[in-house]
């Protein structure tokens, strides 16, 4: 669907809504995202969580905020700049870019303050009780200083390049999110009248940000790497008087802007844009709260930032690197108990997974069901001489992935095609390397359809079975082919040999590799071709059932709901009598519980041990339920700007598991669930009665 068509569609829809202003119908997606990050921060603040898990949650909020600033805030600043050339469009909350920015500025300032209060007032004392300390240089014992200096001399000093800013030494190019030290310096030989100059040292990214020290009386002690470097700056700047020193970090615009050019391959275009991203315009500067005002102003002026774009940090600059603390401290009692998903076993008298799939579909709910089953499926395809060809999409994977290795091995004896998405945000570098490695091994590599990210999760094996019949076997999922994230992301996998599904999956691969558009992809829902309209039709079918007095209900679980057309269709369904339960981890622009608009819509978000990533869509359909899973959220980018696949689950026992076990657990959660109120606030679900934690319940069920 073209931008013009989508705009026209949205205009016609808007006219159908009762004369309500946009802010009465929709929450701002950006404020909704910030509320999600606030829910993650609440897990860091929650003393019932193990202390190292709380540190991990805090680090996640910082990493999330980085992405928000370099993508969303950067985008708003660009729209403000573009607005001077023409009209300023309103966003989903009814605000112009400058107005939205004013609101976000307040949110960001409050959130950063809350992050550091959590660190200083809650986590540091809680860690100290467990004999874990993050110390400053002045707090170190003589023995600890000696060990720290040994590390500095051997590992750190050789990587440092001190720079002094003067007419012959311009300001160095500070890379995106690189931690640096700024110094205010004065030449000793010039005396007190000598002018001050600025010095900059980049903290090596290749080293851990927390340096382990010899413990004292059972303590696990650490010093931040930049504080260790700061203690030695006079050695780097001999001949200068160091007047002040402070850590700072600059976040830059990280949006990729691709232009289709016949002379370039997609791989070359992405590689060039990655280089540009590292040098994008500055959007934010973080600097220690103790930094001298003169130093801060010089840096702010150099990076061409407004005062509001400077964030003073009362603690470590870049809290995301606290994730190292979680990894370094080997204290299982201070983390969640280890958990391994349930292993899949073949039925009695079944020789292999292919024979199993000829009898029945297999559905897995990760991480409660082991992801190894998916790996085994791909590895079986690579090793089985009866498998003729293999096709797979790769959006994000991991280093040394068994799936990646299996695809390379398979290419030695059969036809293998892999669609590698080069523009998976922040994974572009690694995906470029993987694409080249696959090509070198003889794999046919495609990069999908230009302008549309390949986000669907598909694997298709073609096999000549022992009976001589050529059959297709498929894996369809909601999550990436990444064994690492599969241990802490919740996702659904379906393994099937159903001819209708596997034939449709082949049509999807033909679309991705040759842009051939099929007449129908049923029973699959495929974006950007059929998915948006099909979802609308499914919601409208429930609306028609409700108007006819028949059973009508929707339960949908996803990461985000921000597509205006879908929101408006859900409003209409609610008004017709459809009962709607939405389980949405992150952004939600729909206002639930508004009289006359969304009284029958309930929205809940669950933030817990595992990242809720599965997408499940259940429709009552007048007593003949239908349920779908897939890679797409109800967002414009998923519906119109990505290649996505949503697949039906039709086997009765699997449908029952999705509705009565998985979705039911999330709807019953009164421990980690937060309920969205009409004013935009999220309030913890009532804990009256027996406490239910959905993820813990599903872990218990997997152990049976």
UniProtKB/TrEMBL annotation:
| Keyword ATP-binding tagged | yes
Q: Which domain of life is it from?
A: Bacteria
Necessary cofactors: Mg(2+)
Q: Identify the residues that the record assigns to the Polyphosphate kinase middle domain, covering every copy.
A: 145-325
Where does the chain bind Mg(2+)? Answer: 396, 425
Question: Catalytic site residues?
Answer: 455 (phosphohistidine intermediate)
Tell me a GO cellular component. Answer: polyphosphate kinase complex
User: Signal peptide position in this chain?
Assistant: none
Show where the Polyphosphate kinase C-terminal domain sits. 352-515, 524-694
What SUPFAM superfamilies does the annotation carry?
Phospholipase D/nuclease (SSF56024), PHP14-like (SSF143724), PPK N-terminal domain-like (SSF140356)
A GO molecular function assigned to this protein is: metal ion binding
Say yes or no: keyword Methyltransferase present. no
Q: How is it modified after translation?
A: An intermediate of this reaction is the autophosphorylated ppk in which a phosphate is covalently linked to a histidine residue through a N-P bond.
This enzyme's EC code(s): 2.7.4.1
Listed Gene3D superfamilies: Endonuclease Chain A, Polyphosphate kinase middle domain, Polyphosphate kinase N-terminal domain
Instruction: Give the keywords, sorted.
Output: ATP-binding, Kinase, Magnesium, Metal-binding, Nucleotide-binding, Phosphoprotein, Transferase
Sequence ranges assigned to domain Polyphosphate kinase N-terminal in this UniProt record:
26-134
Q: Which reaction does it catalyse?
A: [phosphate](n) + ATP = [phosphate](n+1) + ADP
Family according to the record = Belongs to the polyphosphate kinase 1 (PPK1) family.
Q: Which HAMAP family match?
A: Polyphosphate_kinase
> Entry's NCBIfam families?
poly_P_kin (TIGR03705), PRK05443.1-1 (NF003917), PRK05443.1-2 (NF003918), PRK05443.2-2 (NF003921)
- Summary of the function given for this chain in its UniProt record: Catalyzes the reversible transfer of the terminal phosphate of ATP to form a long-chain polyphosphate (polyP).
Q: What is this protein called?
A: Polyphosphate kinase
Q: Which organism is it from?
A: Edaphobacter acidisoli
């Amino acid at each position: 669907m073209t931008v013009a068509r989508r705009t026209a569609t949205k205009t016609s829809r808007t006219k159908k809504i009762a004369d309500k202003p946009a802010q009465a119908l929709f929450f701002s997606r950006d404020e909704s995202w910030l509320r999600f990050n606030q829910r993650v921060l609440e897990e860091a603040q929650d003393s019932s969580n193990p202390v190292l898990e709380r540190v991990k949650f805090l680090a996640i909020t910082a990493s999330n905020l980085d992405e928000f600033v370099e993508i969303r805030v950067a985008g708003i600043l660009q729209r403000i700049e573009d607005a001077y050339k023409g009209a300023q469009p309103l966003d989903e909350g009814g605000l112009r870019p400058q107005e939205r920015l004013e609101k976000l500025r307040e949110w960001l300032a409050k959130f950063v303050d809350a992050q550091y209060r959590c660190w200083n007032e809650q986590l540091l004392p809680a860690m100290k009780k467990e004999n874990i300390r993050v110390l400053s240089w002045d707090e170190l014992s003589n023995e600890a200083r000696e060990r720290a200096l040994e590390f500095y001399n051997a590992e750190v000093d050789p990587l440092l390049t001190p720079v002094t800013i003067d007419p012959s030494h311009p300001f160095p190019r500070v890379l995106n999110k690189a931690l640096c030290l700024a110094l205010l310096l004065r030449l000793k030989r010039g005396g007190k009248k000598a002018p001050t100059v600025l010095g900059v040292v980049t903290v090596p990214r290749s080293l851990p940000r927390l340096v382990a020290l010899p413990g004292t009386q059972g303590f696990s002690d650490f010093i931040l790497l930049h504080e260790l470097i700061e203690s030695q700056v006079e050695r780097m700047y001999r001949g200068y008087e160091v007047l002040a020193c402070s850590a700072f970090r600059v976040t830059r615009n990280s949006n990729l802007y691709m232009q289709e050019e016949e002379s370039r391959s997609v791989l070359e275009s992405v590689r060039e844009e990655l280089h540009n991203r590292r040098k994008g315009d500055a959007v934010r500067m973080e600097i220690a709260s103790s930094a001298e005002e003169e130093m801060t102003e010089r840096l702010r002026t150099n990076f061409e930032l407004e005062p509001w774009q400077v964030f003073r940090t009362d603690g470590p600059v870049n809290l995301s690197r606290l994730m190292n603390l979680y990894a370094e401290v080997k204290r299982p009692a201070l983390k969640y108990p280890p958990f391994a998903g349930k292993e899949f076993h073949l039925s009695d008298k079944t020789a292999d997974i292919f024979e199993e799939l000829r009898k029945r579909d297999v559905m897995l709910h990760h991480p409660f069901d082991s992801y190894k089953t998916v790996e085994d499926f791909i590895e079986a395809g690579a090793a089985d001489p009866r498998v003729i060809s293999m096709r797979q999409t790769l959006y994000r994977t991991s280093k040394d992935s068994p799936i990646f290795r299996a695809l390379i091995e398979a290419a030695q004896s059969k036809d293998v095609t892999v669609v590698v998405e080069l523009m998976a945000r922040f994974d572009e570098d690694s995906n470029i390397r993987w694409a080249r490695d696959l090509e070198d091994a003889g794999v046919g590599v495609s990069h999908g359809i230009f302008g549309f990210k390949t986000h669907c999760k598909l694997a298709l094996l073609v096999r000549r079975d022992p009976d001589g019949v050529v059959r297709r076997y498929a894996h369809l999922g909601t999550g990436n082919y990444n064994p690492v994230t599969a241990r802490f992301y919740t996702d659904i996998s379906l393994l099937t040999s159903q001819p209708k599904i596997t034939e449709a999956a082949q049509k999807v691969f033909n679309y991705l590799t040759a842009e051939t558009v099929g007449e129908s992809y049923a029973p699959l829902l495929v974006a950007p071709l059929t998915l948006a309209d099909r979802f609308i039709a499914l919601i409208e079918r429930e609306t028609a059932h409700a108007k006819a007095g028949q059973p009508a209900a929707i339960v949908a679980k996803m990461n985000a709901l921000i597509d205006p057309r879908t929101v408006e269709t859900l409003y209409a369904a609610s008004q017709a009598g459809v009962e709607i339960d939405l389980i949405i981890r992150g952004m939600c622009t729909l206002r639930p519980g508004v009289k006359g608009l969304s009284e029958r819509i309930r929205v809940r978000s669950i933030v817990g041990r595992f990242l809720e990533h599965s997408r499940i869509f259940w429709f009552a359909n007048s007593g003949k339920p239908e349920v779908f899973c897939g890679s797409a959220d109800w967002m414009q980018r998923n519906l119109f700007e990505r290649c996505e696949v949503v697949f039906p689950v039709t086997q009765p026992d699997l449908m029952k598991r999705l509705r009565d076990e998985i979705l039911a657990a999330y709807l019953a959660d009164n421990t980690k669930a937060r309920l969205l109120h009409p004013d935009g606030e999220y309030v913890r679900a009532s804990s009256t009665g027996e406490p239910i934690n959905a993820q813990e319940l599903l872990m218990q069920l997997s152990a049976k």
